[in-house]
Amino acid sequence: MALMRNRDMVERYFRRGALPTTWCPGCGLGTATGAMVRAIDQLGLDADKVVIVTGIGCSGQVYTLLNFDGFHGTHGRALAAATGIKFANPELTVIAPMGDGDCAAIGGNHFIQAARRNMDITAIIMANQAYGMTGGQYSPLTPMGSFTSTSPYGHIEPPFDMCALAIAAGATYVARGTVYHTQELVRLIARGIAHRGFSVIEVLAPCPVQFGRRNAMATPVDMFRQLQRATVSVREAELHPEAIGGRAVRGVLREVEGPEFTAEYEALIRRAKGDTHG
Ligand code: SF4
Asked: Which residues does ligand 1 sit against, CB inside 6 Å?
């Protein structure tokens, strides 16, 4: 698989004038966004039929950067807006990049309901384990013992496993990747977008400024090394389950067919409007 050159990617998919981003040096969001754009490119999608829906947070800037139609909603509501957009025009490819605070905290219920409905939407959780934009507060994905601006003595709560949550709630494609394993990440996102049904890709992406510095990872390189150490591929995990040792498993964790309700709701709406042929 040949990856598109950065220059080509920027010229084709990024808005002129939107660069440079306001993201901090070493932030993982740029790599995650690049992987998403490369996945869209590899699938050969019609750019006029791709919609990017974001909520609030550092990840919200994805919408302003990219030359697709989009919607920048309120905090945690990206999936609610994405659901409406998909209902209104099922031909669109709807992708919702969200931060972990955005998706797992204030948007947690939308996430569960979207998974349960198995709407044909792709949710990309850019998981950096804290609220970056608002000052580094702990999020539902902050690991126990970690230091954040609101856990100065070490975080005492266990984090969500978003992939396990997505599977339990009914998502039919669930995968986890990291911005360290870039080519693998492009493949995981492309497969998720191509999947018919609710797709979730958790992308482990460092926030060196608000999280790394507080947790003995002074540079972005330290954080990337941590991603390498703290994850294991699905294949490795299957071959050597004893070697997982608390590490996060990367790869496709679930891929099944399930009832996808976009068409069902369309028929229902036509029926409610009195169209007896619906
Ligand atoms: S605060 Fe963190 S997540 Fe936000 S742009 Fe900076 S490094 Fe990235």
From this structure: 23-24, 27, 29, 58, 128, 132-133, 207-210
